[in-house]
Hints:
D-amino Acid Aminotransferase, Chain A, domain 1, 31% strand, 6-stranded antiparallel sheet, 17 strands, D-amino Acid Aminotransferase, Chain A, domain 2, 7 helices, 9-stranded mixed sheet, globular, single chain, alpha+beta
Amino acid sequence: MDNFLPIAYFQNQFVPFKDATISIATHALHYGTGAFGGLRGIPDPANPNQILLFRLDRHAARLSNSARLLNFDLPADKIFSTITDFVKKNQPKTSFYIRPFVYTSGLGIAPRLHNVEKDFFVYGIELGDYLSPDGVSCRISSWCRQEDRSLPLRGKISGAYITSSLAKTEAVESGFDEAILLNANGKVSEASGMNIFMVRNGAIITPGFEQDILEGITRDSILTIARNMGIPVIERPVDKSELFIADEVFLSGTAAKITPVKRIETYHFGTDRPITDRLREQVTAITENRDPNYKDWVFTVPL
């Protein structure tokens, strides 16, 4: 069984995780009318009496915006304070992942966002590496990334992840670790739950927001770090064939962190990944609060 943290925030109070349950008639369960966030926490390597949370303010702001897309007013400061209290209640001793979730909690059967109750919960799970740090194999999915004109892709809407689930299972059951989705125009969009980057001729290239990607917080962090390192950064449409001839390819996300890609379809990449490795080392240093230039990205929670 997964190692869930013992305390959850549910229906405006902290309760044992096992008691945080919902009805089988819950609206969000039937219609995907929820939105979630995800952020990592680690014990501070320099101080075991506090927890480090990476870019908590950005995660709270994005989830608040996702809630707005569901016709739910949930202020970012409410999310922020609930998560810090959640960490204090659980006293985690190892690396973990926090899942805050907003959803239509009413029991109605009509698909709608008006006149239906909304709620917010938080739970957590111990989590090490989500994907192998040594690298993953990817296939180009037969499933297409949704378009923003049919689904609000600026939020992490739970219903949208049926496509990610289909793509991930298709990839794994055909012998790969991960899927890469193209958008409706045939351009590279993202992986099943991660943004994607490639390196060509010393520059980092990644699909822009217009390619129906999620506005990833780890993605934003990588772009900022790379620019500060003097690495050229280009956000533009990417063709499938460009991935095959890239010098390096990697995925990014809160769970995945920075994960190198070893192979896409039948095209293999070398183990020499100078830019990927530099970025991964820098992100690790920042999340462990070892880089004074990014202190404002790391939030400490005393235990």
